[in-house]
Amino acid sequence: MFEGFIEHFSVLPDFRVDRTKKHNLIDILFIGVCTMVCNGEGFTDMEDFAIAKEEWLRKYLELPGGIPSHDTFRRVFSILDPDIFLACFVTWSQALHEATKGEVIALDGKTIRHSFDRASGQPALHIISAWASENGLALGHVKVDDKSNEITALPKLLEMLDIKGRTVTMDAMGCQRELAEQIVDKGGDYVLCVKGNQASLHEDVAWFFSECGDFEGIEHTYYESVEKDHGRIEVRKCWAVEDEVKWLGIKKWKGLRSIAAIQAERIIRGQSSKEMRYYISSLPGDAQKLALASREHWAIENSLHYVLDVTMNEDMSRVRKDNAPENLATLRRIAINMVRKDKTPMKGRPSIRRAMKRAAYLNTSLEQILVN
């Protein structure tokens, strides 16, 4: 892991003036990543971590100028080109990713809520991430431009990803004909949630499933699953059809092959609620496969966004200047991938929070994460 990190990130151009280069750029990046792995948050944490771990760090780094100050970390991450940093992250992540045919790659957006700056009029940073469900890795992400929305950013994210043989899932915002075409052209499949932003399509699919009743005379597949956890019961029912989609204007949606309806009933402390979602897909009308793809899409919320917000405290980050918020977002995802990729045998698999705390306490645990 350490050698791979150095290999992929040492190509980053250093934009600092030569006379100010007291510290190696790769040393600064490595300390930043290690700080995040150990559940640190900002530039002061980076300085404190390096001071506490200086002897250990010198096993891996030159540190010709000693330990960088928090101001040095702030300046470097503020001027570092976020697009080039992201490109290095994507190539590094894909090298880690053991791609599996049919694996679900979920695309979803998240706002870093406290990254806004009222004084300069800078809005909060919104980032769309790609998550490989089977491997549990962040594959890449893009920033949504200040005066734009996810629709314009999603094609950029798809362009940088290798999705051949994989299934891309997106919520209703990603249900666009152009995105479906891009996915198919790149050799992937799609499962897209249909809602009001595609009003005509949503009405047609909803009407079909409401009118077909018990599916008498209609070829279809059905799948049902029950999940129980912490007093919560969720029953998910999926109906999928394939041969009946031609009337949907199939030519408008490249590769469109099936439609599905998924009903989720949640029972919490005796109170029941139901929700119906509709999907279009380039996959065959296999209810089980479509239901599982839909379910795996939400892994990005639990395995990435939840970790960023609750474990790494991203939403409360007050880093706002220049490129720093975007670069720290990339740094956090590097740390998450490192921790999740660690397969060191131990009694019970610790939560990602516990794994980060162990790395902060024990150099051996940190080394296991970096080496594996």
Task: Give a description of the structure.
With 372 residues, this protein is α+β, with helices and mostly antiparallel strands. The protein folds into two domains: 2-89 and 316-371, no CATH class; 90-305, no CATH class. The chain contains 14 helices and nine strands. It has helices at 2-9, 25-37, 43-52, 54-57, 70-79, 82-96, 150-160, 177-185, 199-211, 287-297, 299-311, 324-341, 352-361, 363-371, and strands at 104-112, 125-132, 137-143, 167-170, 189-194, 221-229, 232-241, 258-268, 271-281. It has a nine-stranded mixed sheet, sandwiched between helices. α2 (25-37) packs across α12 and α5 crosses α12 (324-341).
Features:
372 residues, alpha+beta, nine-stranded mixed beta sheet, elongated
